[in-house]
Write a structure and sequence with these properties.
alpha/beta, Aspartate Aminotransferase, domain 1, Aspartate Aminotransferase, domain 2, four-stranded antiparallel β-sheet, 19 strands, 39% helix, 17% strand, binds pyridoxal-5'-phosphate
Length: 424
């Protein structure tokens, strides 16, 4: 399949904005949806709309089947060992909060340590701040350098401090992003997981961006939790997945309660259903979750060589064109990472370009581009500490998907030139 054919799967990409062809470069915020995903949502809503798990009638059985097929699709997509390890949520944020509350309640106590990256989206920072406040634990930061790379020597030091010989192990969790939504670099999560596990600390990976650009195999990665949203990877919105190793999920109390997440309920007491239902209180977002098989099929299609190679060329062109401007600073440096276990492909840029331009405000650039039909993000990108790290008040972010073409990238560069000339 060619990029042109792949692009034709997405009806929205033919629309005009202010009379111009839409150039959608805000994919890190949300991706567009293929016709197959839209059709699945509509068919389920039109033909099989009924509450899942609860009734014996045909419609309920069909909706429940679609929901469970989505679970199998998610399991296969991340290569989890079992469907019990796949918890449906409303998004990546909800998945991370589930761990912060539930794992936090079970394992994080006063005096313990939670480590988070400096380059995190607020969704993988604020839940840990709140957990540490609740528990009386300490939040420690794994810093990034000016290339946007982790300083793993600091991680080693924090892990060693947290685990003094003969004392109780105090680093209870390390929570980091697979790919930063600002810098767009693939982080060396395998190396971080190896180091953390050697010190006895489990690892949560925020995969909101990672799931889009990387082939995720949670067993090979050996992460303890992997969280992502459906809407960034072609599925309907209001959907997400928490993968968790069974050994942890079984020991964790439910986060939210009510609905079908119970075993037996008396007026005084409830015991809980097995995995994954223990973590799925209330009625799941079944019509949207049901779009997972079609969404993941689309993601796999995008990884076929013809489309993937064309996408790489578009990204390489864009990076070169941005770097060619002396007045523009692009954040995050691609570089081959060599961990103790050898190269892992980390610190490759994955289609996300955040930059500032001398003398021009990021929001003005985004507004002028919008009038030219180009959708980009500007501002803090829900990751204020990363933006502050680089000493700026905001950035422009162009984030691409495999349906974006070379013509769009060239048009974007032309529009950017025009916008800068206009604003100076
Ligand atoms: C790295 C990262 N983590 C977490 C999130 C939160 O995702 P959601 O808003 O879908 O819950 C995002 C969204 O942009 C993200 O990019």
């Amino acid at each position: 399949m060619t990029t042109k054919e792949f692009r034709e799967l997405f009806p929205i990409l033919t629309r005009k904005v202010y009379g111009k062809d839409l150039v959608y470069f805000d994919n890190a915020a949300t991706s567009q949806r293929p016709r197959s995903v839209l059709d699945k949502f509509l068919t389920l809503s039109q033909e099989s709309n009924a509450n899942i798990y609860r009734a014996v009638h045909k419609l309920s059985a069909e909706a429940t089947d679609a929901y469970e097929q989505a679970r199998e699709a998610a399991r296969a997509f991340v290569n989890a060992g079992s469907r019990e390890e796949i918890i449906f949520t409303s998004g990546c944020t909800a998945a991370i909060n589930t761990v912060a509350f539930s794992f936090g309640q079970a394992f994080v106590k006063a005096g313990d340590i939670v480590i988070v990256g400096e380059g995190e989206h607020h969704s993988n920072l604020v839940p840990w701040q709140l957990l540490c406040e609740r528990a009386g634990a300490t939040l420690k930061i794994l810093p990034i350098d000016d290339k946007g790379h982790w300083d793993l020597s600091v991680l080693k030091r924090l892990l060693a401090e947290g685990c003094p010989v003969a004392a109780a192990q105090r680093v209870k969790l390390v929570a980091v992003t697979h790919i930063s939504n600002v810098l767009g670099l693939v982080n060396p999560v395998e190396e971080l997981i190896r180091l953390s596990h050697a010190a006895g600390a489990p690892v949560l990976v925020d995969g909101a961006q990672g799931i889009v650009h990387e082939r995720v195999d949670v067993q090979a990665m050996d992460c303890d939790f992997y969280a992502f949203s459906g809407h960034k990877v072609y599925a309907a919105t209001g959907t997400g997945v928490l993968y968790g190793k069974k050994q942890w999920l079984e020991q964790m109390p439910p986060f939210l309660s009510g609905g079908e997440m119970v075993g037996t309920v008396t007026l005084e007491h409830a015991d809980f259903a097995g995995l994954p239902h223990k973590f799925e209180a209330g009625t799941g977002n079944f019509a949207s979750i049901a779009t997972f098989p079609e969404a993941f099929e689309t993601a796999l299609l995008a990884r076929e060589p013809e489309i993937a190679n064309a996408y790489e060329e578009v990204c390489a062109y864009l990076e070169d064109a941005l770097r060619a401007r002396g007045d523009l600073r692009l954040y995050g440096e691609s570089e081959t990472f060599r961990g103790e276990a050898g190269p892992t492909g980390a610190y490759r840029r994955a289609g996300v370009f955040s930059f500032t331009i001398d003398g021009v405000h990021h929001e003005d650039v985004a507004q002028v581009l919008d009038k030219m039909g180009v959708a980009v993000r500007s501002g803090l990108m829900c990751a204020e500490p990363v933006i502050r790290h680089f000493g700026v008040s905001g950035m422009v972010r162009a984030s691409l998907a495999p349906y974006n073409t070379m013509e769009e990238a060239e048009y974007f560069i032309k529009c950017l030139d025009k916008a800068i000339n206009l604003l100076r």
